[in-house]
Amino acid sequence: MEQRRPGAGARARYWFDTTLARGTSALVGWLVAVCLALVVPASAVLVWTAPHVPAGLSGKLAQVWRLTGETLRLGGTTGTPLRVLLSVLLALVALVYVSTLVGLITTGLTERLIALRRGRSTLVEHGHVVVLGWSEQVFTVVGELVAAGANQRGSAVAVLADRDKTAMEEALYSKVGPTGRTRLVCRSGPSADPAVLALTSPATADSVIVLPPDDSRGDADVVKTLLALRATASGDESTAPVVAAVRDSGYLLAARLAAGEHGIVVESDTVTARLIAQAARRPGLSLVHRELLDFAGDEFYPASHPSLVGRDFGDVLLRYGNACAVGLIRDGVPWLNPPAGTVIEPDDQVLVIAADDDTAELADCARFVEQRLMADPRPRDTRPERVLVLGWNRRAPLILREWGRNAPSGSVADVVADEDGATVRTACDTGDAGWRCVHRRGDTTRPETLYGLDIASYDSVVVLGRDPRPGELPEEPDNRTLVTLLVLRHLEQRIGRELPVVTELTDDGNRPLAPLGPGADVIISGKLVGLLMAQISQNRHLAAVFDELFSAGGTQVHLRSAADYVLSGQEASFATVVAAARDRGECAIGYRSHADAARAPGYGLRVNPPKAERRRWTTGDEVVVIAGTGAGRANASGRVPRSRDARDERHDGAGDGRPGGDWRAGDGADPPTG
Fold first, then answer.
1. CB of 481 closer than 8 Å to CB of 505
2. Where is pLDDT greater, at 121 or 454?
3. Which run of H or E residues covers position 556?
4. CB within 8 A of 78, min separation 6: which ones?
5. Residue 86: pLDDT band by 50, 70, 90 thresholds?
6. Mean pLDDT taken over the chain
7. In whole angstroms, what is the distance from residue 588 CA to residue 597 CA?
8. Could you tell me which residue ranges the RCK C-terminal domain spans (predicted)?
């Protein structure tokens, strides 16, 4: 086939491209040629059309040269050739000098702007919060800190990570949104480098939050960052209180030693595993925890009211109209869900759940209690449980152990995952425990895998996303989880039963996409840990409260059937529910409506409703309570903290009212711990 000959335009473009490829000299030559091609003709037109045209051709050409020289800053001197040449030479020298000076100034300014853009200047702030590292929790942590500083003037949040400063700012502003009064400052560099870390002025900060990176080396990096924080302190200068998180409990001791006595280290995987294990028995608990940890919702606050001194804690439960009493703070130590007969002492503070730290108001709510509508206690269900775990990740062994800790004898956990059987069996080795684990290999995204299971026979289903694999997109685990949930939802419709499904997602943006029924619960692992870290950084006195709530035993948040507290189908006040919970040794703090369980954003949850609020309670409604073994836990000396009955016994006996010692009297006893 005969090739078509290139046209003149194509050949000209090719020739032009080849000349430009020769380098700077070619570019300068083309620049001179283009300028002369434009300036010389224009100068000639001006000379020939001027009112006073020079006489003779030589005079006109001299005038054209003068205009051209003035335009191109080449002197424009006329006369002998040597004189013209020297004039052009001087003009070129001046041009090179000016150009070089401008270039140097431009380069210096550019380097300075680049340094500022990279975030290499030292912060001059006091009372700010420093966030070190970049992970899935950073958007939650920064968002909560912005919410916490909404009513504060001059609040600032500094983020230091080994990423581009502009990219960090764009990502944070797109996810967090407007920051209001809070200034958001980003600095770029490795947080484990003391010289770079000093850019955030940690010594003058109100608190420092250390986030674990998402890669496998994250925990080691956290320890290095904590050591770098210690290195930035000079002399007797102490760093700000630190809140850090590690995933692997093997790094917990090292992180605590590096954080120092004022540091708090959170085990993120353990906390997440416990929440999932708790939600597996009662889906919806993650909503309660998020409400209590979110600065936008109701939170824990200490309240002092002298008029409550001398009253029983059981009476105090009905003494707040717009807050829920959940415990005491005695000698600075939180004590959740104390016995109802515990006497309020002059130095005690009441731990309440309220909208803000100054909104808890006293009110006599006992008049709203209707004894006739309180239900009789029902025996607890102790039959063996069956739980189905779909998927496997690094938290799966922790979840199974936490679930098995409170599982009745004979309970079974079936694990379906595309994982080696030996790995699952080793992780699920229950020893002498009263429950067992059964593994079945299969891909949980395949419909045939789920269709082969007797889904209706399980009490709950836990869906876990696998750990990201090398070269895999970060969103791939969530994508697979959504596929599994879609098939489960189809099975629910086929069997005509709502399955209590608990699923773990990493991206909160995927929650609206999850095909879930009313009985399902979604735990955003990174979000809950981020909320917890932000809350502790702003309210360090609550660290012991959250430690107790998220502990393996002791006092915890529970969702229990409303039929255990009030008669179903009857209209009763929330004060009646509080009184019924008090009789069971619990603190009621809210409820979840079954009719609204599928409606965003609250999904039927109401924390801290007014005691006077009346509603009709249905069979599917649930009551949120704080309960557990903390109510009867003895202190380190073996004695249970003082209650009304114990006080009366002391007055009947020893005159000083102390049974041989007191943990506040310096006898070595420890204060009560929830």
1. yes
2. 454
3. strand 555-561
4. 62, 65, 66, 84
5. low
6. 82
7. 19
8. 282-368
pLDDT per residue as tens digits for the range 187-206 = 888 999 999 998 898 988 99
The backbone torsions φ and ψ at residue 88, rounded to the nearest 5 degrees and listed phi first, read -65, -40
| Sequence-ordered list of residues with C-beta below 8 angstroms from that of 31, at least 6 positions apart, any chain | none
DSSP 77: -
Give CA–CA dist 46/50, Å, rounded: 6
DSSP string, 300-336: EEEE--GGGTTSBHHHHTTSBSS-EEEEEEETTEEEE
The DSSP secondary structure of 619-650, one letter per residue, reads TT-EEEEEEEGGGG---TTSPPPP-HHHHHHH
**Residue 416, strand partner residues:** 390, 440
In the chain, the N- to C-terminal Cα span, in Å, equals 90
Question: 482: Cβ–Cβ under 8 A, 6 or more apart, which residues?
Answer: 510, 513, 514, 515
| Ramachandran area for residue 391 (φ above 0: left; ψ -120 to 50: alpha; else beta) | left
Gyration radius of the chain over CA positions: 36
Question: What global pTM score does this model have?
Answer: 0.75
Please tell me the distance from the alpha carbon of residue 66 to that of residue 79, in angstroms, as a whole number. 11
Residue recorded with tokens 């009253």: 311
Q: Report helix, strand or coil for 201.
A: coil
512-544 tens-digit pLDDT = 888 877 778 888 878 888 999 999 998 888 888
Measured on CA atoms in the order 570, 574, 580, 586, is the torsion positive or negative? positive
> Counting Cβ atoms within 10 Å, is residue 8 exposed (0-12), middle (13-18) or buried (19+)?
exposed
Angstrom distance (rounded) from CA 455 to CA 438: 15
CB neighbourhood size of 35 (10 A): 13
What the block records as the tokens of 25 is 């000299």
* Joined tokens for residue 161: 């990570």
436 vs 445: CA distance, rounded Å? 25
Give the contacts of 314 (CB within 8 A, at least 6 positions apart): 340, 341, 582
What pLDDT does 88 receive? 67
Compute the distance between CA of residue 244 and CA of residue 259 in angstroms, rounded to an integer: 8
Q: pLDDT grade, residue 113 (50/70/90)?
A: confident
**Sign of the dihedral defined by the CA atoms of residues 447, 453, 457, 461, in that order:** negative
Where does residue 240 fall: left (phi above 0), alpha (psi -120 to 50 degrees), or beta otherwise? beta
Helix (H) or strand (E) holding 138: helix 138-148
Residue 4 to residue 611: CA distance in whole angstroms: 90
Q: Is 668 exposed, middle or buried (0-12, 13-18, 19+ CB in 10 A)?
A: exposed
Q: Are the beta carbons of 95 and 73 closer than 8 angstroms? A: yes
Bigger pLDDT: 37 or 270? Answer: 270
Q: Cis check for the bond before 518: say yes or no (omega within 30 of 0).
A: no
Assigned token pair, 500: 């209590």
Question: Which distant-in-sequence residues (6+ apart) come within 8 Å of 8 by Cβ?
Answer: none
Condensed to tens digits (0 to 9), the pLDDT of residues 286-341 reads: 889 989 988 888 889 999 999 999 999 999 999 999 999 999 999 888 999 999 99
**DSSP state string for 451-518:** HTS-GGG-SEEEE-PPPPPTT--TTHHHHHHHHHHHHHHHHHHHHT----EEEEES-GGGGGGS---T
Q: Report in angstroms the alpha-carbon separations of 415 from 190, 355, 361, 480.
A: 40, 41, 49, 17
